[in-house]
């Protein structure tokens, strides 16, 4: 059976000590009331909700799944009641504008809730998660009339929201979208088409669902330049905000999936459905990236959640399961065998899970600071700079953390051995649920192309240069400490990190030069380059956490073992995980010929 306890101490360490969010909040008038007492209360109360209400539904929801009957989708038992508790507690509108009924707290505070909900029950959390992304798109790009029509009910959680992008003939290649929007005399549009893989596309948790839909106008240019974005509600809305007649929006089916079975993944059909154009025509792809950056950070969080849940489930088992004796001598002679946690390989798996979940959490909250700053930016120049910074990190977060989340889930199953393959323990469900995170919101390959092709080559690595400069500045500051004891403690992190960062700069330049001669270099190197980048970025997080933990250890606090565990986990990361960059540096620089020289017909085994 899976186990979840909100990791409040670990979250507070990153939030308060490593990144000092409270000083960060004091920079902005809108955030100055976000105090430590308030955030502590949020962590505590949200943790209780997730532990007592959401976590118990994780395995039962998977077993029951969603039920489909002639366009009607019923969620598993308990989901509706838990959702009602969630919205009555005000959790849904935590980080959204007060003028639409939200609490106006920073997005970074909202991510605390996202992690707890996602770790306790990712499938349940997708219903509210998709709504938050749709809300962000409307806040950024919709007209005031549209905001007033939809945002109040979306913020309260009374209505749900989705993003309808994918069609049967196109996944990430959105230039192939066929859904059409015909203008009407009253300024609305008739939207016709079919969308697939729509998470939370149909369900019984809310009275209305507001779909954000990509479609093409009759005179649209070809390809991605001709895509517009529309609001298409399940039920039409009267001027006073009440529900009108059912729109021509129907659920054709829900997918029978490998995992996240309690989340309805729907085929949504639009048949001359009433829709509202968001912003200007043919700018849908541009507007969509507001949603996509939000969604990709949320998906990156799933990697952290998968790692955390797998770790919390496998650690108690490793402490209790008796098998063989320790190679270095009997540890518990009164028992028939030693617990498996004494074995080095089991510790390797547990420490890898721990390093991934805690390092990944730090990466998410590092990005969350940028999200807050972007939301409060006062000039367009500042906004563009911050958007570049976030855009650079987003593909790394999304792809790297979800890949490692899958690794962590598999390691959890391995800790259980044969028992991990049995449903009752829950590890096989975590493995199945984690797997989708590397696929939706753009596969790992798509994210790799975005990072290397767009953020490094097309944008000439603007934010990459700033990020690597920041890492090297950190390394310089902490290699020149006046406290020799602290300096010696940090050198085991500083030297490998600084060397790797300088190599990262050099490899990026070499790849850019090679790509000028052969475009296939980008495609062949991109995923390995992304993973290489991810390990260095996580190394920076672990170096910062080790630095802060060493400072606290010198103060000899009552919970000194907590900080010693942070340093020891950082040591494990740099000794056992960080060296993976050596292999990646070789494979990402390899000539693409070995990938491309095999004739297509030669792939056949017939």
Along the chain, the helix and strand elements come as: HHHHEEHHHHEEEEEEEEEHHHHHHHHHHH
Model regions low in confidence, pLDDT < 50 over at least 5 residues: none
Mean pLDDT: 95
Percent strand: 5-15%
Keywords:
19 helices; seven-stranded mixed beta sheet; 606 residues; Butyryl-CoA Dehydrogenase, subunit A, domain 3; two-stranded antiparallel ribbon
What would you say this structure looks like, in words?
With 606 residues, the chain is α+β, with helices and mostly antiparallel strands. Among the domains are: 287-449, Up-down Bundle (Butyryl-CoA Dehydrogenase, subunit A, domain 3); 461-594. The chain is 58% helix and 11% strand. It is built from 19 helices and eleven strands. It has helices at 8-18, 21-26, 36-54, 57-64, 79-88, 107-120, 122-141, 144-156, 284-320, 344-376, 380-416, 427-435, 444-458, 462-479, 484-517, 520-554, 560-577, 580-588, 593-596; strands at 67-69, 72-74, 159-164, 180-183, 189-199, 208-215, 228-233, 235-237, 243-246, 249-254, 265-277. The strands form three sheets. Strands 3, 4, 5, 6, 7, 10 and 11 form a seven-stranded mixed β-sheet that branches. The two termini are 45 Å apart.
Summarize the structure.
Helix content is 58%, strand content 11%. The chain is built from 19 helices and eleven strands. The protein has helices at residues 8-18, 21-26, 36-54, 57-64, 79-88, 107-120, 122-141, 144-156, 284-320, 344-376, 380-416, 427-435, 444-458, 462-479, 484-517, 520-554, 560-577, 580-588, 593-596; strands spanning 67-69, 72-74, 159-164, 180-183, 189-199, 208-215, 228-233, 235-237, 243-246, 249-254, 265-277.
